[in-house]
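Render this sequence as a predicted structure.
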Amino acid sequence: MKADKVREMSADELRTKERELQEQLFRLRFQKSLGQLDNGLKIRETRRDIARVKTVLRQKQQQAQAPAAGPSR
């Protein structure tokens, strides 16, 4: 998943996507433990996608709070 696509998503979509990716990561780890995982790189890609989603979600939260806080003196 590209970072540009993640940035275009709303906060609700990001939370949903994070849950989906967490579930996918669980299934991949489970498959790995059973020896059924064909592509081991899929775990790494999923972990990085989760990190992208969390990063963008955090940035959106900070942007929403920054104008409300106002300038500090």
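Summary. The CA atoms of residues 24 and 30 lie 10 Å apart. Helices lie at 3-8, 11-34, 41-69.
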